[in-house]
Amino acid sequence: MKGKLILENGIIFEGNIFGYLEEGVGEVVFNTGMTGYEEILTDPSYYGQIVTMTYPLIGNYGINLEDVESKSPKVKGFIVREKCDNPNNFRCEMDLEGYFKQNKIMGLEGIDTRALTKILRNKGTMKGIITTKELSQSEINQKLVAFNNTDAVMKVTTKESYVIYGTGTHVAVVDFGIKENILRSFMQRNCKLTVFPADTSAKEILKVNPDLIFLSNGPGDPEDLKGVIKVLKEIIGKKPIVGICLGHQLLALALGGKTEKLKFGHRGCNHPVKDMQENKVYITSQNHGYYVSVLPEEMEVTHVSVNDGTIEGMKHKNMPISSVQFHPEACPGPKDIDAIFDKFLSII
C-alpha cells in the first residue's frame, strides 16, 4: 500500500506502508546504527518518535524477543530504505511485518533515507506524519500542533515499584524508561535492585536505605520533569547518585546546570567519546536529543564527545555523584565502556 511521510516543513516522501495501518505522528529522528533495530524499536527513550534508519537494509535477521529492551515497541513509526521480507537467522522468531502488525506500529519503506537524513541534519529534527491518506494543509497543521511528548516519561515508567534480589550492593533505580540491559548490567554485578516509578517521592526512595541511587535513561525534554528535579534536590547529599542519559541531564538540572536541545541528536552505536581522566577514546552507543549545555559549578567533566565537543560525562568534586550521557550498557552497540558500571558502584 502506498503511503507517505509529511514533514512539518512541507517536504513529502512517498513510499510503501508496512505493518499496522494506523497513522503515526511524532518527532522524526535518525539512527546511524547498521544493526540493532530490535533494541531501537523497544528502547523507551524513543517514545513519541518516528525513527529513520540510515543503514539501507533493515530486518534481515528478523525479530528475536530475547533481544528487546522493553516489553513492547515504543516508536511512533519506523522508516527504512528497504525492508527484508525473508529474514534468515537461526534465532529469528518473526519478521518486521508481523511484529509491527502485532504491536500496532506503522512502517514506511522505499523512500530516500539519505535525503531525509540530510534534511534532518541541516534543518534539525522536526515533527512528521506517516499516513496513507490525502490530508489538507489545515489537517496536517492540526495533527502536528496536537502532538507533544511532555508526558513521555510517565507513559513508559513502571507503574509500581518492584525488587530484583541480589546479594551485593543495594541500588535504588528510578525508572524514567529504563532499558532491560541496564538492569542486567547491575544484576551481573550481584546488585539488589529496588525499581521505583519516575514520580516517586524522595521519602519513599530513601526509606529503603539504598547504598546507591541510579537515575535511568528515558524520553523527552528533562526540563519538563520539574517534579523529578525537585525530588533530586532533596536527595542530593544524602546518598551516592549516578545516572545515564536522561538521568545525567536531570542530575545536572538539579545541581544548577542547564540543558538544551541538540539540532539533530546523537543516535547510533558508533559515537566516539573521550575519557578525560584516562585520555582514551571509546566508541559508544547513544540515543539523546538533549545535552548538558552548562555544567553545574561543583561538577567537573569526565567525558566529551569527539564529534561535537558536548559534555558526555561528569562527576561531583566533593560528593559521590557521577553520570554519563552515553549508554555504557550498549544494546545495540559496542560494550567498550561497560566498566562504567563498576565505576558507578565504586563511588559508594
Automatic annotation (TrEMBL):
<feature type="binding site">
    <location>
        <position position="45"/>
    </location>
    <ligand>
        <name>L-glutamine</name>
    </ligand>
</feature>
<feature type="binding site">
    <location>
        <position position="220"/>
    </location>
    <ligand>
        <name>L-glutamine</name>
    </ligand>
</feature>
<comment type="pathway">
    <text>Amino-acid biosynthesis; L-arginine biosynthesis; carbamoyl phosphate from bicarbonate: step 1/1.</text>
</comment>
<dbReference type="InterPro" id="IPR017926">
    <property type="entry name" value="GATASE"/>
</dbReference>
<dbReference type="Pfam" id="PF00117">
    <property type="entry name" value="GATase"/>
</dbReference>
<dbReference type="Pfam" id="PF00988">
    <property type="entry name" value="CPSase_sm_chain"/>
</dbReference>
<dbReference type="InterPro" id="IPR006274">
    <property type="entry name" value="CarbamoylP_synth_ssu"/>
</dbReference>
<comment type="subunit">
    <text>Composed of two chains; the small (or glutamine) chain promotes the hydrolysis of glutamine to ammonia, which is used by the large (or ammonia) chain to synthesize carbamoyl phosphate. Tetramer of heterodimers (alpha,beta)4.</text>
</comment>
<feature type="domain" description="Carbamoyl-phosphate synthase small subunit N-terminal">
    <location>
        <begin position="1"/>
        <end position="131"/>
    </location>
</feature>
<dbReference type="GO" id="GO:0005524">
    <property type="term" value="F:ATP binding"/>
</dbReference>
<feature type="binding site">
    <location>
        <position position="218"/>
    </location>
    <ligand>
        <name>L-glutamine</name>
    </ligand>
</feature>
<keyword id="KW-0067">ATP-binding</keyword>
<feature type="active site" description="Nucleophile">
    <location>
        <position position="245"/>
    </location>
</feature>
<dbReference type="GO" id="GO:0004359">
    <property type="term" value="F:glutaminase activity"/>
</dbReference>
<feature type="binding site">
    <location>
        <position position="287"/>
    </location>
    <ligand>
        <name>L-glutamine</name>
    </ligand>
</feature>
<dbReference type="GO" id="GO:0004088">
    <property type="term" value="F:carbamoyl-phosphate synthase (glutamine-hydrolyzing) activity"/>
</dbReference>
<dbReference type="InterPro" id="IPR002474">
    <property type="entry name" value="CarbamoylP_synth_ssu_N"/>
</dbReference>
<dbReference type="InterPro" id="IPR036480">
    <property type="entry name" value="CarbP_synth_ssu_N_sf"/>
</dbReference>
<keyword id="KW-0055">Arginine biosynthesis</keyword>
<feature type="binding site">
    <location>
        <position position="246"/>
    </location>
    <ligand>
        <name>L-glutamine</name>
    </ligand>
</feature>
<comment type="pathway">
    <text>Pyrimidine metabolism; UMP biosynthesis via de novo pathway; (S)-dihydroorotate from bicarbonate: step 1/3.</text>
</comment>
<feature type="region of interest" description="CPSase">
    <location>
        <begin position="1"/>
        <end position="170"/>
    </location>
</feature>
<dbReference type="InterPro" id="IPR050472">
    <property type="entry name" value="Anth_synth/Amidotransfase"/>
</dbReference>
<dbReference type="GO" id="GO:0006207">
    <property type="term" value="P:'de novo' pyrimidine nucleobase biosynthetic process"/>
</dbReference>
<feature type="active site">
    <location>
        <position position="329"/>
    </location>
</feature>
<dbReference type="GO" id="GO:0006541">
    <property type="term" value="P:glutamine metabolic process"/>
</dbReference>
<keyword id="KW-0665">Pyrimidine biosynthesis</keyword>
<keyword id="KW-0436">Ligase</keyword>
<feature type="binding site">
    <location>
        <position position="289"/>
    </location>
    <ligand>
        <name>L-glutamine</name>
    </ligand>
</feature>
<comment type="function">
    <text>Small subunit of the glutamine-dependent carbamoyl phosphate synthetase (CPSase). CPSase catalyzes the formation of carbamoyl phosphate from the ammonia moiety of glutamine, carbonate, and phosphate donated by ATP, constituting the first step of 2 biosynthetic pathways, one leading to arginine and/or urea and the other to pyrimidine nucleotides. The small subunit (glutamine amidotransferase) binds and cleaves glutamine to supply the large subunit with the substrate ammonia.</text>
</comment>
<protein>
    <recommendedName>
        <fullName>Carbamoyl phosphate synthase small chain</fullName>
        <ecNumber>6.3.5.5</ecNumber>
    </recommendedName>
</protein>
<dbReference type="GO" id="GO:0044205">
    <property type="term" value="P:'de novo' UMP biosynthetic process"/>
</dbReference>
<keyword id="KW-0028">Amino-acid biosynthesis</keyword>
<dbReference type="InterPro" id="IPR035686">
    <property type="entry name" value="CPSase_GATase1"/>
</dbReference>
<dbReference type="GO" id="GO:0006526">
    <property type="term" value="P:L-arginine biosynthetic process"/>
</dbReference>
<dbReference type="InterPro" id="IPR029062">
    <property type="entry name" value="Class_I_gatase-like"/>
</dbReference>
<feature type="binding site">
    <location>
        <position position="290"/>
    </location>
    <ligand>
        <name>L-glutamine</name>
    </ligand>
</feature>
<keyword id="KW-0547">Nucleotide-binding</keyword>
<feature type="active site">
    <location>
        <position position="327"/>
    </location>
</feature>
<feature type="binding site">
    <location>
        <position position="249"/>
    </location>
    <ligand>
        <name>L-glutamine</name>
    </ligand>
</feature>
<keyword id="KW-0315">Glutamine amidotransferase</keyword>
<comment type="similarity">
    <text>Belongs to the CarA family.</text>
</comment>
